[in-house]
Structures are given as C-alpha cells and as structure tokens.
Write a structure and sequence with these properties.
Shape: rod-shaped
Organism: Novosphingobium malaysiense
Protein name: HTH lysR-type domain-containing protein
Strand order of the largest sheet: 8-12-7-11-9-10
Structural class: alpha/beta
Number of helices: 9
CATH superfamily of the largest domain: Periplasmic binding protein-like II
Distance between the termini: 62 Å
Family: Belongs to the LysR transcriptional regulatory family.
Number of domains: 3
CATH class of the largest domain: Alpha Beta
Keywords: DNA-binding, Transcription, Transcription regulation
Largest sheet: 6 strands, mixed
CATH architecture of the largest domain: 3-Layer(aba) Sandwich
Pfam families: HTH_1, LysR_substrate
Length: 307
C-alpha cells in the first residue's frame, strides 16, 4: 500500500470521525434523532447508523432512548464534552490553515543589524500588524553571526543587511533589495558644517559615531569613537557633540530637514552607499507571511534609496 493511499485513508477516517462527532452533538442539542437528522441534513436512519457505529467502536451507549426523547448517558456526556473541544479545534485549524496560505496567520521572523532595524522595523511592524494582526512577528537585532545562528535554528526566516559576511556560508542564498546611500552628517554647530567640499583628512581629530567596534566599521579619518548599537542614542550623541556620523540620510531625514543635522560634502568618501540584501536558506519553504515581508521590504528600501 503506497504512502499516498495510506494518507488518503487516514484523512477519510479523520473526516468520518469528525462527522460522527457533529452527529452526536446534534442529537445531544436537540434531544431528538429526527430533529437532529434535519439539522445535519441526512436521513434519520443514516444518523442512527452513524451514532451506532461510534457506540460499537467503543462498546458504550451514548444515549438512552425513551418516549420523551433521548438523554445522554455518562459516556455520552463525556463524548459531548470532548466533541465540542475537538470540533472547535478542527475549525480553528481549518480557518488558520486557510489564512496561513494568504499570510494572515502563523509565525514568521526576521533578523537585522542595528541600522536596518532602525530604518525598517518601525514601519514594517506597523504594516505587518495592520495587515495580519494574528501573525506572530519575531524580530532579532544583532551581528551577522547572531543572525545566522537564528536563521539556521529556524527562529527567523529572513535576514536583511549587507551580505558580505554571509555570502560564503553553505546553503545560504540572497537577493538584492536595493542600494541605500550613505552620508557623513554632523550637528549644525560643528566646525566642519558649512565649509563646502571636504576631504577625509579634514575629519581627522573628530570622533566618529558608529554601531560596531571593529576596524571594518571605523570611519576613515576619524580619531576616537563613540560606539553604540542603538541608532537613536547615536543620533542624540551626534546632536550634542563633535562626532561625525556615517549614516543613511533616510534615518535622519527629519533632523536634516529641520537643519539640526547637516551633510558634509566629503569628495573622497570611500563608502557612499550600502548594498542591502535579503538572505535566507536555500531549499527551505518560506511562509506566505515571510514572502509578503520580502515584497514590503523591497518597496521600503526603494523608497529610502531616493532620500
């Protein structure tokens, strides 16, 4: 017997069991086989055979039949109690599976570095909850190594970020979301503000605000540094100190518009943009919710690229 045929048999047996439970509840609710048969749209003999088959399977009587109708036996009361819970759960399963297919239920997770989280998560969280309030949306913020561990464990389905650190990991694939421009910004009272064209050497002597404490993230030309993974704190520190900050203008759009922060025109800035990618495991089926997240992220990154 093939596995497919066995699955079909098991499915039919499950459906028959659920139908019999519905029949039991109908009789218990109405106290009458004839009325219950009308309620479930079958003949009374067919309903009686359904109840009898259940009783024979367990060797128990569910109903006492009398002139005044039918009443539940102790076994019948137990059967009704469980039937209500099972049918409710079956209904929930059917409803959730149908909604899951449209990204409206289930669980999905996404990981990001501090910059992408600051840029995308507030809008993405609002959009996700407005569209699918019953989806459990798990987020992780951290280093590429931490995100990769969560991806392999299945805690998250997607990673958003620069993929150079993950591109050689076996089984990992990526697709481009877009390119985000970067700029060096300072507060408007900064000595470098308003000086026109600058070179990287002009930044010597000013500390850099940055998210990670390693050489690849250090801003060229800077002396000291203020290191913090929280970009809201980095912004506040830059607004009050002489720090220079290599950041996406989209993250500080309000401050730039209000003039509290200004861009520096650094002509030899070695990193003027960052490639943003979507990273996931090759060959693993992604949930509909994660597929919707990917499309939403692509739209968001495209909008931010024009800032």
């Amino acid at each position: 017997m093939s596995n497919a045929f066995q699955i079909q048999i098991a499915y039919l047996e499950c459906m028959i069991s659920l139908i019999r439970l519905k029949h039991i509840l109908a009789v218990a609710r109405s106290g009458s086989f004839s009325i219950a048969a009308e309620d479930v749209c079958i003949s009374q003999p067919a309903l009686s055979r359904s109840i009898q088959a259940f009783e024979e399977e367990y060797g128990l009587r569910l109903f006492d039949r009398g002139k005044g109708g039918v009443t539940l036996t102790p076994a019948g009361k137990l059967a009704v109690e469980h039937a209500r819970g099972l049918l409710a759960s079956a209904g929930d399963l059917d409803r959730d599976m149908r909604r899951f297919g449209h990204g409206g239920a289930g669980r999905t997770g996404i990981g990001m570095g501090p910059l992408m989280a600051s840029l995308l998560l507030p809008r993405l969280g609002v959009a996700t909850l407005q569209r699918s309030p019953d989806v459990t949306f798990v987020t992780r913020i951290g280093s590429p190594d931490q995100m990769l561990e969560a991806l392999l464990e299945g805690t998250i389905e997607l990673i958003v970020g620069n993929s150079w650190q993950l591109s050689l990991v076996p089984g990992v694939t990526e697709e481009s979301l877009g390119v985000l421009p970067l700029a060096i910004v300072v507060r408007r009272e900064h000595p470098l503000a308003g000086r026109g064209k600058l070179a990287m050497q002009d930044l010597d002597g000013f500390p850099a605000a940055q998210a990670f404490d390693h050489a690849t993230s250090s801003q060229p030309g800077a002396s000291g540094a203020f290191v913090c993974e929280n970009f809201a704190i980095l912004r506040d520190v830059v607004l009050e100190t002489g720090c220079t900050w290599l950041v996406s203008p989209a993250l500080v759009g309000r401050e730039l518009e209000e003039g509290r922060l200004v861009r520096l025109d650094v002509t030899d800035l070695p990193t003027a943009e960052t490639q943003t990618n979507l990273i996931y495991l090759r060959g693993r089926t992604r949930s509909p919710a994660s597929q919707w997240l990917a499309e939403t992220l692509r739209t968001m990154v495209g909008e931010m690229a024009s800032v």
